[in-house]
Design the sequence.
């Protein structure tokens, strides 16, 4: 999904996060040594500096390399006691290229003062702190990452409307990492109408942090080619960046910035309820969520996150061939019927109760009481992504359901926004 918006300013730095030092022994010397049939001398102690958000991932990386963690110490303690933080930093810069995860680390830390209170619906600060280590702006417009297109596959079926592509990019040559719900920027080649280099466009990421191949080497996008009639000339106009992306061929290079965004992140709670409402390419982050929750390969590499809650996707499209990722969605529905509910709103094929076209807001109205019952649960997070016009209809439907219990929806919505349980990204 593409949307307009300002790129976040300050990058996330180690100084703003909790950082730990792993002392590791037994790391292999190189990939080539794995192929030998005779004993290889193990390395001595290596000190690896690891941000809080990467602890679980780094542990798995160390295990894959045959290493064993001898100790884990906060950097602050080392700085105060034995001054090893500097040498640990150099070791981390050489070895630590792990993907971040939003899971609790395997070591128990004493809670900070502001974390000792009970988690209530309106405790927004606790939610914000939980995402303090999410990567932001690793690559900026003045120094983008140069990725390569691996594949560019059509998502719209025969007789569908428009062009939508699923693009997968190789990011193995750099340090680009991200989590579900974030976006990356794409800088198209060429000059704009003013003769200046084209500016970046932001697109929601459609893959999990591990990528479609679950190897931490790719990032994927869901892109619709923008096409419209010029209001004065009647000429067909095509979006610059979307057309560029939809026409990429495997091997083509692309300038990538980011990642950005913390508004659409999934809660770490494995028992959460996740309501998703999407139109068109707004399905992109929802696909990432669903893969993280339900795909076998993802669950295998995420032992710290095994979703056990309930998720519900309400997906609005114009025609059946425009149901993006249809086979994936229905496979998950068939495999996890107790944990995933799938509802379509197909505007040009289905009718609402008034005889008009069935839009996503009509489906929300149809299930408003069920949705309201879920939303009241403090474990429920709601995500809305897609065309901005659907928000008013969703609010109207939920207002009616809440009013049956004497609740003002507008006020209640403000509370759950403050609590970090209402997430919106529309364009």
Sequence:
């Amino acid at each position: 999904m593409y949307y307009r918006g300002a790129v976040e300013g300050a990058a996330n730095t180690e100084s703003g996060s909790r950082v730990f030092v792993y002392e590791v022994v037994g790391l292999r010397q190189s990939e080539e040594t794995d192929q030998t049939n005779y004993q290889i001398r193990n390395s001595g102690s290596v000190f690896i500096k690891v941000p809080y958000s990467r602890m679980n991932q780094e542990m798995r990386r160390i295990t894959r390399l045959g290493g064993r963690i001898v100790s884990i110490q906060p950097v602050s303690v080392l700085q105060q006691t034995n001054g090893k933080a500097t040498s640990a930093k150099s070791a981390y810069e050489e070895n630590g290229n792990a993907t971040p995860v939003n899971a609790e680390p395997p070591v128990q830390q004493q809670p900070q003062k502001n974390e000792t209170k009970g988690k209530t619906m309106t405790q927004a600060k606790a939610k914000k702190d939980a995402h303090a280590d999410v990567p932001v702006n690793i690559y900026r417009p003045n120094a983008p990452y140069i990725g390569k297109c691996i594949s560019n596959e059509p998502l719209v079926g025969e007789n569908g409307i428009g062009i939508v592509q699923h693009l997968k990019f190789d990011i193995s040559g750099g340090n680009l990492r991200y989590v579900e719900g974030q976006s990356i920027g794409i800088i198209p080649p060429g000059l704009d109408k003013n003769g200046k280099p084209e500016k970046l466009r932001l697109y929601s990421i459609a893959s999990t942090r591990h990528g479609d191949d679950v190897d931490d080497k790719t990032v994927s996008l869901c892109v619709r080619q923008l096409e419209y009639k010029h209001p004065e000339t009647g000429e067909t106009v095509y979006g610059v960046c979307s057309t560029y992306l939809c026409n990429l061929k495997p091997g083509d290079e692309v300038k990538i910035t980011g990642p950005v965004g913390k508004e659409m992140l999934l809660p770490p709670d494995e028992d959460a309820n996740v309501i998703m409402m999407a139109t068109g390419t707004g399905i992109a982050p929802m696909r990432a969520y669903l893969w993280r929750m339900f795909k076998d390969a993802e669950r295998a590499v995420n032992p710290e996150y095994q979703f056990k809650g309930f998720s519900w996707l309400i997906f609005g499209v114009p025609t059946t061939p425009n149901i993006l990722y249809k086979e994936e969605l229905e496979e998950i529905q068939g495999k996890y019927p107790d944990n995933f509910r799938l509802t379509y709103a197909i505007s040009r094929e289905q009718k609402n109760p008034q005889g008009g076209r069935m839009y996503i807001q009509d489906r929300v109205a149809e299930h408003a009481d069920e949705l309201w019952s879920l939303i009241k649960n403090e474990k429920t997070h709601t995500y809305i992504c897609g065309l901005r016009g659907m928000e008013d209809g969703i609010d109207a439907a939920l207002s009616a359901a809440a009013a049956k219990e004497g609740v003002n929806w507008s006020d209640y919505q403000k509370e759950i926004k403050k609590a970090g349980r209402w997430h919106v990204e529309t364009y």
